[in-house]
Amino acid sequence: MAPIASIEYFRVPPRWLFVKITDSLGHTGWGEASLEGHTQAVEGCLDAYRERYVGMDADEIEHIWQTTWRLGFYRGGPVFMSALAGIDIALWDLKARKLNVPLYQLLGGKVRNKLKVYAWIGGDRPDDVAAQASARKAQGFTTIKMNATSDLGWLDSPSALLPAVERLRAVKALGMDAGIDFHGRVHKPMAKQLAFALVPHSPLFIEEPLLSEHIGGIAAIAAQTTIPIALGERLHSRWDVRPFLEAGAVDILQPDIAHVGGVSELRRIAAMAEAYDVAVAPHCPLGPIALAACVQTMAATSNFAIQEMSLGIHYNVGGADLTSYIRNPEVWNVREGYIELMEGVGLGIEVDEREVREKAVGAEAWVSLGFGLGGPGGEVREW
Fold this sequence. Notes:
Layout: E1 4-12, E2 16-23, E3 28-32, H1 39-53, H2 61-70, H3 78-99, E4 114-120, H4 129-139, E5 143-147, H5 162-172, E6 177-181, H6 188-198, E7 205-207, H7 215-224, E8 229-231, H8 238-246, E9 252-253, H9 263-274, E10 279-280, H10 288-298, E11 307-308, E12 338-340, H11 353-360
Parallel strand pairs: 4-5, 4-11, 5-6, 6-7, 7-8, 8-9, 9-10
Antiparallel strand pairs: 1-2, 2-3, 4-12
């Protein structure tokens, strides 16, 4: 037994929140609690958790997880679950490092030696996708994801959807696969039309065809199209996921390890999805700690399909990228659409603590501007 001695967090560019846990024997682990656009809320939650968990046994990961979930009365949601994720990931990393094994060994061992990955192109207002897809292909990717559209009205002109089809055709012409992210910004009257228009061009999946609160509408679109439906980044626990599985509304589940309470809950969500023959493709447009935790968990997950990477994503500005804050960035090298499973202990990455502490000084919280008052009448539109 080694009690938790300290819980620290670090806000770092471009928009990430890292967590470090140290036990009384000096063992350490790193986690990530990034919640895009809501950093201060998660930090406040971590302050409260720190008061509760310092002194508890660092080995009792599940007990700490259940304590967080069950003793607070209010539970779930993006803020609570992101803060819990930072702690949970750090505890798994600490334990695996203490035992001198990769984290996946604590999950039953690996079922694969490499993982298929994809990268983003196009930005929030997708453009110039052929050139960007070619650049990704040169990096070693065979699959990309891009937003289907810029902002749309509830009922827009059908002509507003035509560029989405042309962008998909341009990427497919390069011999690449493409996931098309509706991003919840396409409302029901337009989403049905867009899904129909994309069918002849075989996207790998369409993501968040509607916002996740519209489960009935998503189920209806799923019944109308042959394209696989992907979603899950705005679902924060197995209880959130369950109705989508029961409704047959999802083919590819995309939980975000930094928003679902970490390794512990991602593992459970994946097992639940397997019972419905649903694949898992974790959402992760975040930092290297979150991605490493995904890789370790998916290495031991049979129904894993593909992993999102934030390498060069349009949010990574100001000099920080997926290769920042770690001393072994080569783990993110992509070859023929795959990354190799890391061989190191714990998460398999070596966090550069000096860089983390330096960049955390004075770091501002990232704020999403979305599309602002993007509608023609000055109305707010979905980001």
